[in-house]
C-alpha cells in the first residue's frame, strides 16, 4: 500500500466472483476511515476459486496507485490483472488490463496464494512477487517466483524467475498463505516475509518466516530465518489468510497485519490483527543467527574456513565414502558468498579429519590468504588401526 493511498480488502468465494472494498487511510491505519461499498472484479474466470490476493502500488508513476488482483483456480493455474488509477474511494478509474497467466504454475492441488509488489532492483520499477502453497493436505509445499518490471498493462520488462522453494515448510495442513516485502533491518535491501496458519500440537497458530536480503531476481541472498509463532493466536478454524507489512511511523519496523477468514459458531468472519514482527536479528547479540539457504555446499562439508576475501572454504576429504578414500578422490569447494557460485580448487591431499578425541580438526586462514587445517588425515589414519581394518576413515554406508 502506498502512504496516503487506499487500503483494500477482498472477499472470496469458491464459486462466485470476488469483491473488493477499499478505504482511504494514512499509512494504512483504519482510524477515522469508512469502508466503501463492495465492488466486484469484472470478467472473473468461470472455474472454482482456491484463493485470491491483491496488492496496491503506483505502476506508471502518475501518482495514482494501481490494483493488482491474483486469481488462484482450484483445479490448477493462476492469473492476474490490473485495475488502473484507483481513486480515493478505491474505485478503478482507468480500466482493467487483460488477465495474464502466471507461467509454469505448480500442477499440484492449489491451497493458497498471495502477491506483493516491491522495487527489488532500485530502478523504481515494481516486481511482482507471487507465493503459492500447493499439494495435498499434510504434504503441501510453499514456493515463490518473481516477475520483474511490471507495468500498468500487466506486461513485464524482464523475465520470470524460477520457482524457489521456501525452506523448512512443515508438512501440516495449510490454511492459506500471506506475503509482503519490506526492508526489515534498514540495510537498504528488502526482505520477503511469508505468513501461514498451521496446525500443531498446541492447536492452530499463526507463523511467519523471513527471506533476508532479496536481490534483483528475488533470491534471499542472506538465507531464511526460523518459523516464528505469533502470540495469542485465535483457536478458530481458518480457511484463508493474507498478510501485509505496515509501518506506523517513518523509519520504524513495520507491523505484520494479518487478515484471516475464520469459522466460528457456524459463520464465517474476517479477523484483522497487527502483530509486532519478532526477528532472528533481535537475538543475535546473545544467541547468534542461523539461516537456511536455498542451495547446498555441493559436497559433504565436514569442515569450513572463512577466507580473508569473505569466501568460505568447504573441505570434505574422503571420509564420507570408502570408494573415494581408496581412489584418492578428495573434494573441496569455495563458496563465493553471498552469491550461489562455487569453484572447485585442486585438492591433492586428503583433508578429512576423524572425530576422535585426539584430533582437533579446524580450518583457518592467515592474513596472507593461506588456508591451513589442524591435522592431516594421513597422520590420523596411521594412529587409528581400527579404521584401517574397515577400509577407510568412515565405514558405515
List the helices and strands and how they pair.
Blueprint: E1 6-11, E2 19-24, E3 39-40, E4 49-57, E5 66-73, E6 78-83, E7 100-101, E8 110-118, E9 126-134, E10 141-150, E11 164-165, E12 174-182, E13 191-198, E14 205-211, E15 228-229, E16 237-246, E17 255-264, E18 267-275, H1 284-287, E19 303-306, E20 312-317, H2 322-327, E21 331-335, E22 342-343, E23 363-365, E24 371-373, H3 377-382, H4 385-389
Antiparallel strand pairs: 1-2, 2-3, 4-5, 5-6, 6-7, 8-9, 9-10, 10-11, 12-13, 13-14, 14-15, 16-17, 17-18, 19-20, 20-21, 21-22, 23-24
Structural write-up:
- This protein is mainly beta and 397 residues long.
- The chain is 5% helix and 37% strand.
- It contains 4 helices and 24 strands.
- It has helices spanning 284-287, 322-327, 377-382, 385-389, and strands spanning 6-11, 19-24, 39-40, 49-57, 66-73, 78-83, 100-101, 110-118, 126-134, 141-150, 164-165, 174-182, 191-198, 205-211, 228-229, 237-246, 255-264, 267-275, 303-306, 312-317, 331-335, 342-343, 363-365, 371-373.
- The strands form 7 sheets. The protein has a 4-stranded antiparallel sheet, with no helix packed on it.
Would you summarize the structure shown here?
The chain is mainly β and 397 residues long.
Amino acid at each position: 500500500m502506498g502512504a496516503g493511498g487506499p487500503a483494500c480488502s477482498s472477499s472470496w468465494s469458491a464459486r462466485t466472483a470476488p469483491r473488493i472494498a477499499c478505504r482511504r487511510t494514512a499509512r494504512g491505519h483504519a482510524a477515522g476511515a469508512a469502508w466503501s461499498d463492495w465492488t466486484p472484479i469484472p470478467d472473473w474466470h468461470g472455474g472454482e476459486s482456491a484463493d485470491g490476493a491483491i496488492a496496491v502500488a503506483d505502476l506508471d508513476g502518475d501518482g495514482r496507485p494501481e490494483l493488482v488482483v491474483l486469481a488462484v483456480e482450484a483445479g490448477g493455474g493462476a492469473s492476474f490483472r490490473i485495475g488502473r488509477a484507483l481513486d480515493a474511494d478505491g474505485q478503478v478509474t482507468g480500466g482493467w488490463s487483460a488477465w495474464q497467466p502466471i507461467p509454469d504454475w505448480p500442477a499440484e492441488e492449489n491451497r493458497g496464494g498471495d502477491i506483493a509488489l516491491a522495487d527489488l532492483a532500485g530502478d523504481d520499477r515494481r516486481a511482482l512477487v507471487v507465493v503459492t502453497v500447493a499439494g495435498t493436505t499434510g504434504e503441501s509445499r510453499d514456493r515463490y517466483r518473481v516477475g520483474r518490471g511490471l507495468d500498468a498493462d500487466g506486461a513485464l520488462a524482464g523475465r520470470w524467475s524460477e520457482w524457489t522453494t521456501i525452506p523448512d515448510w512443515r508438512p501440516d495442513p495449510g490454511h492459506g498463505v500471506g506475503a509482503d516485502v519490506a526492508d526489515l533491518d534498514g540495510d537498504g535491501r528488502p526482505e520477503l516475509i511469508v505468513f501461514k496458519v498451521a496446525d500443531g500440537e498446541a492447536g492452530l497458530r499463526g507463523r511467519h518466516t523471513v527471506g533476508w536480503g532479496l536481490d534483483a531476481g528475488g533470491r534471499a541472498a542472506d538465507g531464511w530465518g526460523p518459523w516464528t509463532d505469533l502470540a495469542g493466536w485465535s483457536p478458530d478454524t481458518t480457511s484463508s489468510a493474507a498478510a501485509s507489512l505496515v509501518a506506523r511511523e517513518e523509519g520504524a519496523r513495520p507491523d505484520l497485519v494479518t487478515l484471516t477468514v475464520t469459522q466460528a459458531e457456524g459463520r464465517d468472519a474476517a479477523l484483522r490483527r497487527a502483530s509486532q514482527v519478532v526477528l532472528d536479528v533481535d537475538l543475535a547479540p546473545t544467541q547468534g543467527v542461523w539461516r537456511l539457504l536455498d542451495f547446498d555446499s555441493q559436497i559433504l562439508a565436514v569442515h569450513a574456513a572463512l577466507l580473508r576475501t569473505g569466501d568460505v572454504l568447504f573441505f570434505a576429504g574422503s571420509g564420507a565414502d570408502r570408494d573415494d578414500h581408496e581412489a584418492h578422490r578428495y573434494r573441496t569447494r569455495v563458496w563465493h558468498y553471498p552469491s550461489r557460485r562455487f569453484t572447485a580448487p585442486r585438492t591433492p591431499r586428503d583433508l578429512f579429519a576423524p572425530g576422535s578425541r585426539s584430533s582437533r580438526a579446524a580450518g583457518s586462514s592467515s592474513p596472507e590468504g593461506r588456508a591451513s587445517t589442524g591435522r592431516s588425515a594421513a597422520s590420523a589414519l596411521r594412529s587409528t588401526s581400527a579404521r584401517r581394518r574397515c577400509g577407510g576413515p568412515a565405514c558405515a554406508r
